[in-house]
Specification:
Elements (H helix, E strand, L loop, with lengths): L1 H29 L5 H23 L4 H4 L2 H36 L5 H38 L6 E4 L11 E6 L10 H13 L4 E5 L7 H8 L11 E4 L2 H5 L2 H10 L3 E2 L3 E6 L6 E6 L5 H4 L7 H5 L8 E4 L6 H6 L4 E4 L11 H4 L8 E5 L3 E5 L19 E5 L1
Parallel strand pairs: 1-12, 2-3, 3-4, 4-5, 7-8, 8-9, 9-11
Antiparallel strand pairs: 2-12, 6-7, 10-11
Helix pairs in contact: 1-2, 1-4, 2-4, 4-5
């Protein structure tokens, strides 16, 4: 079933890419130049880059084994470039279409009609040139934002039931690393160093660790075993773990000394009679669609907890907050959205998730913090949503 789904998504994405590239050829090849050689050159380049993009959608499972890494990186980069080229061109062409319809309401002479055609051709070339220049600037900014120094914002969260002795407790929140052909061992080392430098009391990794199976990508993730916090390092699954063998990833994470919270909880603090809170973790909201045993089950995760304890929940997807609020969770820590990653894609994300990023109150007692993510998925760029390692301070 999963194989069929992935094939379907690949075919759908492939058709969209082909259609988009045909439109780009019409606007950037045919309209920009009357020189046949240049039009052919643009067509060949677009065809080659389209193939790279298609391969980038299907090769990540085997990239480190078969050495296709550079090809995948080029393909992923081109997907991001195409997105902004198409967005700018389609918007500009829509505006031109509206203006053309307005002008058609005027009665034009034959001479004016001829001049109108020349004007439209000139404007088409101007728009194409401006689009290429604008996209170059956006993409350069996006790549720099994704691959430069990771932000470490501090977010202070007041919790009504948190013991005074634990006020100031610090949780370093990591999520959506998406390790693979683009973000590898060097990126992991930077993440580990910056996280440990925060001197957190606890570290939480909230899903989407990698884009590939553990036996392939695991070699670049081993430095995560150097994460250090007095109260431990914890992990819950995201949807991408299920695409690439969730059981293999859980074995790998446990082998690094990281505690997996699989629909379960632990008490964090000074012991049974001291100051404590409940840290719970559930599987990703999509887990049950892959395997019934991996369905998210918050009531099970909270079974047996002390009712006076405050609850901090690790759950990959923000939409899991509805159940969290019903179960009396004080704070949910999530990721998944990447903060939209490529503006304005955040608008589409909000159709599926209640929150895009930041701290929000949900209901009378619950709060949720949604991280923009630490890595990036697909194109190695971020526009309007820089990566972060969040320093969550409980008070």
């Amino acid at each position: 079933m999963i194989v069929v789904l992935l094939i379907g998504l690949g075919l759908g994405g492939g058709l969209a890419l082909v259609a988009g590239h045909l439109y780009l050829y019409r606007r950037l090849g045919r309209d920009l130049s009357r020189v046949r050689f240049l039009r052919v050159l643009v067509g060949v380049a677009l065809a080659a880059l389209s193939l790279c993009a298609l391969l980038a959608m299907v090769l990540p499972r085997k990239v480190p084994e078969h050495g296709f890494g550079p090809l995948v990186v080029v393909g992923l980069m081109w997907i991001g470039i195409v997105f902004y080229l198409l967005a700018c061109l389609l918007f500009a062409d829509l505006v031109r279409l509206v203006l053309r319809l307005v002008r058609r309401r005027c009665v034009l002479s034959a001479e004016q009609e001829s001049g109108e055609l020349d004007r439209r051709q000139f404007m088409a070339r101007v728009v194409a040139g401006v689009t290429v220049a604008s996209t170059s600037g956006i993409v350069s900014f996006g790549v720099h934002s994704a691959l430069s120094e990771i932000a470490t914002p501090e977010v202070v969260v007041p919790l009504a039931r948190l013991p005074r002795a634990l006020s100031g407790f610090r949780i370093a929140l990591l999520c959506d690393l998406h390790l693979g052909p683009v973000l590898g061992r060097g990126f992991v080392r930077e993440v580990v160093e910056r996280t440990n430098a925060l001197s957190p009391d606890l570290i939480a990794i909230v899903g989407d660790l990698a884009d590939g199976p553990s036996e392939v990508i695991g070699r670049v993730a081993t430095d995560l075993g150097r994460l250090r916090a007095p109260h431990g390092v914890f992990f819950v699954t995201g949807n991408h773990e299920y695409y690439f063998g969730v059981e293999g990833w859980l074995r790998f994470v446990r082998g690094l000394g990281i505690r997996v919270l699989a629909n379960e909880h632990v008490r964090i603090g000074d012991g049974p009679k001291g100051a404590n809170f409940t840290l719970a973790g559930v599987h990703d909201a999509s887990g049950g669609r892959f395997e019934p045993a991996f369905a998210a089950d918050l009531p099970r995760a909270l079974a047996g907890r002390l009712p006076e304890d405050e609850i901090v929940l690790l759950a990959h997807q923000p939409k899991q907050v509805d159940e969290a609020a019903r179960q009396g969770v004080g704070l949910q820590l999530s990721g998944h959205t990447h903060g939209g990653q490529l503006m304005p894609l955040g608008l589409a994300v909000t159709l599926d998730q209640p929150y895009l990023s930041g701290l929000h109150r949900h209901g009378p007692r619950s709060q949720i913090y949604v991280s923009r993510g630490t890595g990036c998925w697909g194109p190695p760029m971020r526009v309007g949503a820089p990566p972060e390692i969040t320093n969550v301070v409980l008070i």
